Amino acid sequence: MRRDFTPAHVTAPAAGGRVVFSVHRRTAVGALVAAGALTLWAAGATWFVAARDDLAQRVFIGETEMRYSYEDRLGRLRQELEREVTQNMVERRGFESRAAALAARQAEIEQRQAWLRSAAD
Q1: Burial degree of 26 (CB within 10 A; 0-12, 13-18, 19+)
Q2: Stretch 113-118: mean pLDDT
Q3: Does an H or E element contain 100, and which?
Q4: CA dihedral 45, 51, 56, 57 (to 10 degrees)
Q5: Rounded alpha-carbon distances, angstroms, from residue 94 to 38, 47, 51, 108
Q6: Are 11 and 17 in contact (CB under 8 A)?
Q7: Radius of gyration from C-alpha coordinates of the chain
Q8: Virtual torsion, Cα 90, 92, 93, 98, nearest 10 deg
Q9: Is 19 helix (H, G, I), strand (E, B) or coil?
Q10: Which pLDDT does position 103 carry in this prediction?
Q11: pLDDT tens digits for range 19-60
């Protein structure tokens, strides 16, 4: 391949003094690659602008569904906690009433024991 380092334009006297442009093959290929890259960039930018709303909507819907599921789970856990607390309070009250009844019975037994001692003396 012969390398010709002549200027990009040459004045041709036979052409009536007009400027005739000659472009090297490398320059033409580079220009085509640049034009292709620019076309791809423009297509990508157009797709992004057109699809951005759809993508944002999908992301927003996903985050909303995740938030609602989190709030539902949180509500179920709160209900379970309240049920456990209520059950604990009921059991504690039952235990306290049984302990109070047992203490009253113990006092009655001690009183009878004291009466029996005094009656035996």
Answers
A1: exposed
A2: 89
A3: helix 25-120
A4: 170
A5: 81, 70, 64, 21
A6: yes
A7: 48
A8: 120
A9: strand
A10: 93
A11: 556 678 888 889 999 999 999 999 998 888 887 878 788 889
